[in-house]
Amino acid sequence: MTPKAYNTFCGSLPHTTHVVQWGDADVWKVGGKVFAIGGWNPESDAKDFLYVTFKCSEISYDLLKQEDGCRPAPYLASRGMKWIQRTSRDVIDDATLKNYLRESYRLASLNLTKKLQKELGLNQD
What we know:
With about 120 residues, this protein is of the alpha+beta class. It has one domain: Aspartate Aminotransferase, domain 1, CATH 3.90.1150.30. It has a six-stranded antiparallel β-sheet. A hairpin with a 3-residue loop joins strand 1 and strand 2.
């Protein structure tokens, strides 16, 4: 996934905001809660390859952290949070990455107050 495709996809999700922070990373939030962080591999010549960090379920976290090309997200995972960073384009294809980003968005939105969730029309099933 290119940086442009990543930003376009995250921006297509309802009620998202984008900021550039943490070393020029593209950070996406829903209701002020981070759900995706995209940055470039400084050691790579492939400037179009995006490291993507996302929140995931405990099961996904346990599976993905063992895969080559994924790792517990620096800083976040060391504090007990279930966040994975994709570090290789070979492990998660773009369609699968989008599914993980959608789930990360949903998980982040569940941490919003019930009032804000209702105002935004999220999680009203």
